[in-house]
Design goal:
The protein has an 8-stranded mixed sheet, with helices on both faces. Helices cover about 30% and strands about 30% of the residues. Strand 7 and strand 8 (about 180-190) form a beta hairpin. It has about 190 residues and is an alpha+beta fold. The protein has one domain (about 5-140): Gcn5-related N-acetyltransferase (GNAT) (Aminopeptidase), CATH 3.40.630. Helix 2 packs across helix 4 (about 55-70). It comes from Paenibacillus protaetiae. This is N-acetyltransferase. One of its GO terms (cellular component) is cytoplasm.
Length: about 190
């Protein structure tokens, strides 16, 4: 068994000073639905979020299947003293599986309930996830696509060592409005 097979034998739970990055279950669907339906939260998304708690259950199932297939690491974020889901981090290769690292870059996506914004929680969670990937996956490059108006997210990534590589014009179409959206490509090289 190689190191990456071992990585996917059980879900890697990570602990920080205040947070637990853990595997999500169907029991987290209500929390997930709650923060995806906050108007302030949705302003930086390219879709309107899941339409029901059942859709959240399916989304969590999709993420967990992705872990089993070695194509994503989908962490739920909770506080140490409370299982409430307050955010998510998903890291995945842009092609293939984690077994193909470092051949292909990874992409990272993350969300945080608005009540926890601007308190250092996402920086803390992303630091743990990135440190894990550096040590365990053979990662060479990781990138994130961020809407230009999401200044807080750009600031977090810059603090972690990501660099702005440019603006991708009309890169994404909003799932509901069908309006094309620009994104800033942020990336970091790890080896």
């Amino acid at each position: 068994m190689n190191k990456r097979d071992d990585l996917f034998s059980t879900f890697p739970e990570l602990r920080t000073k205040r947070l637990v990055l853990r595997q999500m279950t169907a029991a987290d669907a209500e929390d997930l639905f709650g923060f995806y339906h906050d108007t302030k939260f949705k302003q930086y998304l390219d879709w309107h979020g899941p339409g029901s708690i059942d859709e959240c259950v399916r989304m969590i199932g999709f993420w967990n299947n992705g872990f089993e297939e070695k194509i994503m690491l989908p962490w739920g974020i909770s506080m140490h003293n409370n299982r409430e889901l307050i955010g998510t981090i998903v890291i995945m290769p842009i092609r293939g599986t984690f077994e193909d690292a470092p051949r292909y870059p990874f992409t990272i996506a993350y969300d945080l309930k608005t009540a926890f914004w601007n308190k250092g929680f996402m920086t803390e969670a992303l630091t743990a996830a990135l440190d894990f990937c550096k040590k365990e996956t053979g990662l060479h490059r990781i990138q994130a696509e961020v809407l230009p108006e999401n200044a807080a997210s750009l600031k977090v990534l810059e603090k972690l060592g990501f660099r702005r590589e440019g603006l991708l014009s009309h890169y994404l179409m909003h799932e509901s409005t069908k309006i094309f959206m620009n994104v800033v490509m942020m990336a970091m090289l790890l080896s």
